[in-house]
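Morning. Coffee machine broken again, so started the prediction first thing and wrote up yesterday's gels while waiting. Chain of 413 residues, entered below exactly as on the submission form.
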Amino acid sequence: MSEDRSVSVAQGPLVGLRVLELGQLIAGPFAGRMMAEFGADVIKVEPPARDGHDGGDPLRKWRKLHPDDPSGTSLWWYVQGRNKRSITLDLRVAEGQRIARELAARSDVVIENFRPGALEKWGLGYDVLACDNPGLVMVRLSGYGQTGPYRDRPGFGAIAESMGGMRHVTGFPDRPPVRMNLSIGDSLAALHGVIGALMALHRRRESGKGQVVDVALYEAVFNMMESALPEYDRYGIVRERTGTSLTGIVPSNTYPTADGRHIVIGGNGDSIFKRLMRAIGRDDLACDPALVDNAGRAAQAQRIDDAIAAWTSTHTLGQGLETMDRAEVPSGRIYSVADMVADPQYVARAMVEQVRLPDGTPLAVPAVVPKLSRTPGATRWVGPTLGEHTGEVLAELGYDAAAIAALHAGGVV
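Came back before lunch.
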């Protein structure tokens, strides 16, 4: 990672692409972060301090803060904001809106995750911006999308995970639905936003025209629901919570071990199932013609799970993993973040990256993925301080020092 906090020469497949990020918190900024990691010049617009508030993306203050930073910056921010240029701009005032339009006119992509209608109220809707920049691609992330009866409702990732179906199938059948201890709905929407933006940019190469990428958080979650809908339509089956197993795919479960831990085993391939049964001393099940394929195994899922659990319960986690490895059966233990940073596969793949914060403090952060062989992404700098690049970006638009000072004095930036 470059120690230089100024904008350095980018690398990655998106070099030359300019992205204007108007979002905050998770979905929009995660989409912008991915594009920045792969070389795009991402200009993040944040509200200036005003009315006694600190200003900036609220995520700057979320979760655990950097203990040696007097401003109290979130450790998460250093990852979510990496490689971005931060400018402050009040989008509620006419001068701020005018500057935002100037920036959009020079951008390839605008990312926003305000409630539908907010940009239009500020004179920053797609129709307005596309007049000056017909090739502009706008990624719009919202709880329910830009249309429909729910469009004006506030929508967070937790609601999307519920409406999209994920919560209904997560947990144990005799207990209330549970959530992951992550904002997975926002992250899935962000990934859909990036994919949509790249598809729209590809199309622009032929047509010269941009377009809107309309991502509803609940729809991004719904897109992950596999066969739930066609199975309901054809058979009236409603997929329910099944704890640690996977409906209709057998065996694929989590089993207890003799040392009080758990092993995850996926033996649902036909040949893998036979190897698994022989490895645990159950040749009778390996040779049972009723279990030769997944359909037959699904009909006897409890019998198979009981057999595997009886074996794992008499072996430690290490013994179980070693046996499965010898038999070439997919298996694993359940990792905490402490396990991740110590694991040789994570180390070999350089999945934990060491960066330095502005005050020189070292910090481990997730490395950039996916890994491209010829034009990989990289961390060039960690999340910037609020408004760190305001003067720089305004100068690129042609503002001189006196004009920038006046904007500061007027609270516009």
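The radius of gyration is 25 Å. Going to sketch it on the whiteboard this afternoon.
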